[in-house]
Amino acid sequence: MIDQRVLPRIERHLDFSNCEEVAFAIERMVIRGAPAIGIAAAMGLALGARELEKVEDTKAWRKEFEEFCERLLRTRPTAVNLPWAIERMRRVADEHLNESARERARVLEDEAGKILIEDIAINREIGKNGSRLLQDGDTVLTHCNAGALATGGYGTALGVIRAAVEQGNGIRVYADETRPFLQGARLTAWELMQDNIPVTLICDDMAGSLMRQGRIQKVIVGADRIAKNGDTANKIGTYTLAVLAAEHGIPFYVAAPINTIDLECETGDAIPIEERNRNELTHIFNQPIAPDGVNVWNPAFDVTPARLITAIITEKGVARPGKKDDLIFE
Questions:
Q1: What pLDDT does 21 receive?
Q2: Is 262 among the residues known to form the active site?
Q3: CA 212 to chain centre
Q4: Peptide bond just before 180 cis, omega within 30 deg
């Protein structure tokens, strides 16, 4: 993994050899982004299966494998891609319980590789479907990081921007810094500069002023979980942008794969919201910026109601929240 905690100052790659190390990496934000942590969880389970290669008793193997699944499920509760990937790996494991532990490990490693390859293809389809919503000369605002770093590659929200640029459209981007973890400042700005896509960094509380001046034509963000009715959980601050976009008549788009839609979750009220360590808010790069002992509330995500979302861009097409608590694909 690229250690996303130290970008852009240092480009450091870390190797992980067992499931617990992968779980730790997800918890500590070495890797982040809903699709990326789903892929990482699948690979963590493939490593877990390697650890169990000498366990030939099927019941014992299945019990230990389930412990790996539960450990990964506890890492980050909001992004639905993580339980989706774990359930897919569980299903494959159960389909091969009559084979040797070594063969099971090989099959699970292959499955994790398929999840990665599929995600990159999905992102490119999202980019193609979303690029028609952008016009030459548009300036787009994005929040957090929904690019190659947050996925298997290419990106969701940034994938739409990349696809539009690849088609010859002149697109400019404003990137919110995205406090408190600074994914926009550290990751999105870095990604776009690597691709020579014009990007300007702003503080989170500058977006409204830009909109009022007419300097933003579209807003595109990613998603960690989308409810059946289109309510969307994404990085904290997304809801604020959606309200501002609605006030200024600016289209607000969500870009995400179909597996981010949780059909078991009727509305956004049922989406679990992760709360993270207080130090992420009181410190920047281990330097204190707040008084010792101050009370802290640090939710990692908020929920944007479907009524504020213009459309949800997926690999299957562009969906619009319907009037009957469902998504309608164009």
A1: 98
A2: no
A3: 29
A4: yes
Alpha helices in 132-237 (DSSP H): 157-166, 183, 189-194, 207-212
Q: Tell me the torsion sign for CA atoms 267, 270, 271, 277.
A: positive
CA distances from 86 to 69, 259, 302 (A): 6, 12, 24
Rounded average pLDDT over 280-294? 94
Burial class (CB in 10 A: 0-12, 13-18, 19+), 196: exposed
| The pair of three-digit structure tokens given for residue 187, joined into one six-digit string | 């990751």
Domains in the chain, start-ordered, CATH in brackets?
19-124 (1.20.120.420), 130-329 (3.40.50.10470)
- Mean pLDDT along residues 239-264: 97
Percent of the chain with pLDDT over 70: 97
Q: Distances in Å between the alpha carbon of 185 and those of 43, 145, 207?
A: 28, 9, 14
* Catalytic entry in 224, 231, 262, 302: 224
Distance CA 203, CA 195 (A): 22
Structure-block tokens of residue 181: 């973890």
Are 274 and 216 in contact by the 8 Å Cβ rule? The answer is: no
pLDDT in tens, 184-230: 999 999 999 999 999 999 999 999 999 999 999 999 999 999 999 99
Q: Report the chain's C-alpha Rg in angstroms.
A: 20
d(CA 291, CA 325): 45
Length of the chain: 330
Half-sphere exposure in the Cβ direction for 101 (13 Å, CA): 18
- Residue-averaged pLDDT of the chain: 96
Determine the 3-state secondary structure of 235 from DSSP.
strand
